[in-house]
């Protein structure tokens, strides 16, 4: 009698366990690669994604963020390949760092294509953005949503830059695609490619004179404290962030979990874009208060940079895809 009761109780407990979805669905953990930590808007975007996914899956899905490109030993331009091969499950990545493998992403690096934030949105939220996502997917990574690193401004340790002539001869650190070498060579600078991990010591020792990064990066990384005393707001390009997932991981997920992951990425991206744009004005004040000489260009001075880099625009348009560039330009004109 007793034994029978125990068996019955156990059977009931087991069927309960099997019937409860929280037990039936497995818990999974995924790696998320970023270049910058959660001290920066970029890392905060990844943290927000992880938080939303954890909350909405009631703890079933865990995203563990690995900042500083540590999953590729700091070599940020290898991130896309590592994702494609499955070494990395997910990433919140800059278009710049993936552009060596996805040429279409050079669109955002075309000098002076996007004059303002509305122009970025016109691309990412429209048909040109859909084409860019299709290009990423075709190369083996599932893109889910956009975020923002920001407009990249030019700093250096030597002099205020107001004209293309002022850039001549400066040793400028650049990252990513050869497009950046073309841009800075065209301006008569001496560009050198290196990772963000290598850039910071190179700035400290004076091995390089300058760099370009969004205001948030300049501020949080205290780039002025390694001698970068001059900052020119030239807005020559902005790098969006892309939330992406390895294809195999993506296909292994149920349709519900795919939707959960995508919506969480969209929400985290929108949250981060708004937050980083809202912080820009205060960030600029903080940078000025630390004694950085900030140069704002007059429309004529700005135009001189546009004209000086026009050849880069022409050279890279066919590599990116003339149709895609035209579609982006039309979206910007109609914004
Ligand atoms: O390396 C950079 O400059 C950074 C952090 O902005 C990127 O990863 C593109």
From TrEMBL:
Source organism (scientific name): Zobellella endophytica
InterPro entries, sorted: DctP_fam, TRAP_DctP, TRAP_DctP_sf
Taxonomic lineage from the root: Bacteria, Pseudomonadati, Pseudomonadota, Gammaproteobacteria, Aeromonadales
Metal-binding found in the keyword field: no
CDD domains (alphabetical): PBP2_TRAP_DctP10 (cd13678)
Keyword Protein biosynthesis carried by entry: no
Biological processes, Gene Ontology terms: transmembrane transport
Gene Ontology cellular component terms for the protein in this record: outer membrane-bounded periplasmic space
Signal sequence region: 1-24
Protein name (record): C4-dicarboxylate ABC transporter
Membership in a protein family: Belongs to the bacterial solute-binding protein 7 family.
Entry keywords, A to Z: Signal, Transport
């Amino acid at each position: 009698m007793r034994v029978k009761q125990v068996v019955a109780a156990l059977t009931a407990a087991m069927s309960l366990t099997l019937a409860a979805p929280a037990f039936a669905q497995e818990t999974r953990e995924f790696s998320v690669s970023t270049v910058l930590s959660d001290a920066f808007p970029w890392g905060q975007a990844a943290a927000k994604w992880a938080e939303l996914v954890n909350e909405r899956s009631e703890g079933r899905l865990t995203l563990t963020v690995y900042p500083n490109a540590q999953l590729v030993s700091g070599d940020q331009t290898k991130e896309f390949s590592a994702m494609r091969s499955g070494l990395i499950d997910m990433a919140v990545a800059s278009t710049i760092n993936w552009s060596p493998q996805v040429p279409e992403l050079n669109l955002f690096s075309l000098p002076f294509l996007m004059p303002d934030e509305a122009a970025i949105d016109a691309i990412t939220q429209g048909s040109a953005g859909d084409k860019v996502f299709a290009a990423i997917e075709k190369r083996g990574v599932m893109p889910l949503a956009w975020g923002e690193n920001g407009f990249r401004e030019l700093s250096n340790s030597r002099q205020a830059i107001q004209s293309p002539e002022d850039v001549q001869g400066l040793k400028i650190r650049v990252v990513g695609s050869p497009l950046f070498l073309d841009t800075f060579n065209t301006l008569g600078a001496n560009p050198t490619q290196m990772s963000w991990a290598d850039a910071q010591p190179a700035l400290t020792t004076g091995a390089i004179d300058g760099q370009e990064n969004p205001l948030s990066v300049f501020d949080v990384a205290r780039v002025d404290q390694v001698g970068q005393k001059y900052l020119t707001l030239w807005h020559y390009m902005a790098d969006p962030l892309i939330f992406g997932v390895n294809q195999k991981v993506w296909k292994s997920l149920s349709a519900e979990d795919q939707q959960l992951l995508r919506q969480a990425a969209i929400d985290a991206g929108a949250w981060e874009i708004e937050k980083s744009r809202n912080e820009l004005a205060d960030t600029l004040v903080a940078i000025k208060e630390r004694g950085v000489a900030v140069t704002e260009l007059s429309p004529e001075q700005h135009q001189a940079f546009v004209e000086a880099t026009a050849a880069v625009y022409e050279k890279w348009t066919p590599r990116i895809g003339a149709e895609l560039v035209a579609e982006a330009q039309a979206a910007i004109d109609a914004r």
